[in-house]
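pls design
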């Protein structure tokens, strides 16, 4: 569109305009899809490495766009954060997954996961009534606060302020707090002193360092010491191979999550006891 001037700058501006249009379109579509019920929630198992048993699961939102089909949350969550719709969308995810979790507990008894992990964005955390909304959902679902783990990123807490207060309020009410993508954001270690945290989710990029026949994976090794030293639970993310799972287990990781154990699905089977590692 900006060819006329032949300048790179003009072309660049045209690209930016197109991207802004695309973002605005996606934003408007999000609004319609919230009203039309095009969102749903899938659940990925979190497994105890020693036994292969599914101990928990993480709720992940999915969008079936009426025209484009499946759109990745990596593409639409940032848009929903920018236009504020993440507040409504996030509440939908929280309510859906808490009710689902409570149903599993009723139906499956000892086979049911012991907690549900739900992602919460910076914008949701900064919303004044957020802890009250969460408390309401927990009560309405008939679950214990400790059966909910809220996953927040270091970046969401970086600014301090309302987001950190919300985390403190939730934690005070008994809700678990996980730092998501741990090690990839700002000031990771400093945050652990100022924010109440129960779980470190060790980012996939560090698990990726564990390659077949490779040497030491330095960061996953360091982070298990950090989490044990501070009395936190560590969950390794993005485990794709048996070798990675065995390596993490041998380092002392208790919990892991990844395609090796199971992809996120609408209806996980918790009775199959997951993927068991060979002893060793
Ligand atoms: P995340 O919270 O770090 O979630 C983990 C992502 O890694 C998920 O992608 C999951 O499907 C993917 N994953 C899990 N195991 C593996 C593996 O072994 N290999 C690979 N390659 N990927 C794996 P997904 O569902 O596409 O979500 C992407 C991101 O979008 C999430 O990253 C999270 O930041 C955001 N997100 C997803 N659902 C929600 C939500 O309900 N609320 C908010 N605020 N953000 C969400
Ligand atoms: Ca997460
Ligand atoms: Ca993560
Ligand atoms: Ca991530």
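designed seq:
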């Amino acid at each position: 569109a900006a060819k006329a001037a032949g300048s790179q700058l003009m072309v660049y501006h045209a690209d930016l305009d197109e991207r802004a249009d695309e973002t605005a379109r996606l934003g408007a579509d999000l609004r319609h899809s919230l009203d039309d019920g095009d969102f749903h929630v899938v659940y990925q198992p979190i497994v105890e490495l020693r036994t292969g048993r599914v101990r928990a699961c993480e709720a992940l939102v999915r969008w079936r766009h009426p025209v484009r089909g499946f759109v990745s949350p990596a593409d639409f969550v940032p848009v929903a954060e920018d236009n504020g719709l993440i507040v409504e969308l996030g509440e939908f995810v929280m309510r859906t997954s808490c009710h689902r979790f409570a149903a599993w507990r009723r139906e499956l008894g000892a086979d049911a996961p012991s907690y549900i992990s739900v992602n919460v964005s910076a914008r949701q955390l900064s919303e004044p009534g957020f802890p009250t909304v969460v408390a309401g959902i927990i009560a309405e679902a008939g679950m214990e606060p400790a059966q909910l783990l809220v996953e927040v990123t270091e970046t969401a807490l970086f600014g301090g302020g309302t987001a950190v207060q919300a985390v403190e309020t939730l934690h005070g009410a008994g809700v678990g707090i996980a730092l998501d993508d741990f090690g990839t954001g700002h000031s990771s270690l400093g945050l652990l002193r100022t924010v109440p945290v129960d779980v470190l989710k060790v980012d996939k990029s560090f698990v990726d360092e564990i390659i077949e026949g490779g040497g030491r994976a330095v960061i996953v090794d360091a982070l298990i010491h950090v989490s044990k030293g501070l009395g936190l639970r560590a969950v390794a993310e993005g485990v794709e191979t048996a070798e990675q799972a065995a390596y993490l287990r041998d380092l002392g990781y208790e919990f892991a999550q990844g395609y090796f154990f199971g992809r996120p699905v609408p209806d996980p089977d918790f009775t199959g006891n997951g993927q068991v590692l060979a002893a060793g």
